[in-house]
């Protein structure tokens, strides 16, 4: 058993970068020319020459000057509600309902019995095998995927606690946001530091990056950074960390949440209180999340399960993050020493105890992590991977994100999904060559600038393991 693999950096002696073939894959997608845009599709923005009207039942909603899209108009109280502002708030259960609830006919079981597929499961078929043909079908399919990932792998994800209170203080550019969450008896308090840009905040407040354990990416000016102590929320020292951390002080040490869902829960509570803390001056429509390695796995989960995250940036998340379990096993069986599902359930408490029941029969999983990433769509996602670190499963992340990309294509927004894979640096170090793609995503989705986010490349360094898409992706991508 290999513990603390996150901190093991394999020397790249085998990697002859000088002779490695650099293959830059640029996906160029033809713009659809429908007169009316469908669900999630872009319907406006500076520089946009496509449709500006949405199909019946949808409304073209402005996200920023450069991006409007078609979403379901709902007048019911099911849509996200924001409690009245107060600087030291005491609100009961703020809502974090996803922006679009599936149709009532959408069945979302937590398991699919008899599932057996050694290739990646098809995003575009429902659990019962019927095809996903439209964007509203996708809304239901997404809800199915969410239930399956929690059911098999990630465990329980509780909603808001009975009471949530916060205090915010600021000194110079440093803010402190202390949050107290309570259920009947127990209560917990967790505190995070927000580092603000200097100068005057834009109307609507500062954009914010929630950085798991502080993060390790360069942040452009004009964006506040909240350092999230996720290991404090749910400990992740090793396999003995199960049930330890603030989350479990509130929900009980036997709570069936994993570290992943406990971390997501904490992110959601931070956003809950930011929505009701005007003194913090955060624009809660412009929140990004990041983390590296184990914390990158968590950042990806947060982006998938918290729909108020506007931009998701996992860095070197590897297995359990932007890789697929099936592909990592293939990589291992092809001779690379990578982190697999069977290894990971013994290494740490990131996933539920239930997941261990499935790791030796991956074909029975009716999902893989291409579908976790696809849950983020249409919201933007860019993930970074490092081919020098073999155990991160470089083929697996490339293949898995290639599969996830088909969902962004189907929704008509492939430019909302980026992937960058290079070597030549230590684990969680940041090579300057990646900064332009990162800035493009920040600029467009947090800072409202008109820039291209067609960011997709790999160096193709898979340690001799060959990638054959047709072995893993046997679906054709619909156009919604
Ligand atoms: C926005 O970007 C597009 C594509 O680069 C360009 O055609 C358009 O002129 C830009 N608009 C503005 C206002 O800069
Ligand atoms: C799954 O499918 C494979 C190939 O079709 C077959 O060999 C295997 O027996 C099946 N497994 C189960 C549990 O049905
Ligand atoms: C894809 O693979 C699954 C599982 O083996 C199979 O059921 C399905 O028919 C395949 N689809 C296509 C289009 O080949
Ligand atoms: C947790 O589960 C164990 C084993 O089932 C049990 O002995 C213990 O009492 C439970 N603890 C709590 C707080 O429920
Ligand atoms: C990829 O896999 C398919 C199906 O297994 C096979 O027909 C094809 O020859 C493979 N291509 C390469 C380049 O290995």
Describe the overall structure.
The protein has 480 residues and is of the alpha/beta class. It folds into two domains: 127 residues, no CATH class; 309 residues, Rossmann fold, CATH 3.40.50. The strands form three sheets. Strands 6-7-8-9-11-10-12-13-14-15-16 form an eleven-stranded mixed sheet, with helices on both faces. Strands 2-5-4 form a three-stranded antiparallel sheet, with no helix packed on it. The N terminus is likely disordered. The protein binds 2-acetamido-2-deoxy-beta-D-glucopyranose (5 copies). One 2-acetamido-2-deoxy-beta-D-glucopyranose binds next to loops.
Which helices and strands occur, and which strands form pairs?
Layout: E1 36-37, E2 42-44, E3 53-54, E4 58-64, E5 67-72, E6 90-92, H1 135-154, E7 163-171, E8 174-182, E9 187-195, E10 206-212, E11 224-228, H2 230-233, H3 246-251, H4 259-275, E12 282-292, H5 294-305, E13 311-315, H6 325-333, H7 341-347, H8 369-374, E14 381-386, H9 394-410, E15 417-422, H10 435-445, E16 456-458, H11 469-472
Parallel strand pairs: 1-3, 10-11, 10-12, 12-13, 13-14, 14-15, 15-16
Antiparallel strand pairs: 2-5, 4-5, 6-7, 7-8, 8-9, 9-11
The structure holds 2-acetamido-2-deoxy-beta-D-glucopyranose (5 copies).
One 2-acetamido-2-deoxy-beta-D-glucopyranose binds next to loops.
Catalytic activity: a 4-O-methyl-alpha-D-glucuronosyl ester derivative + H2O = 4-O-methyl-alpha-D-glucuronate derivative + an alcohol + H(+)
EC number: 3.1.1.117
GO biological process, one term: lignin catabolic process
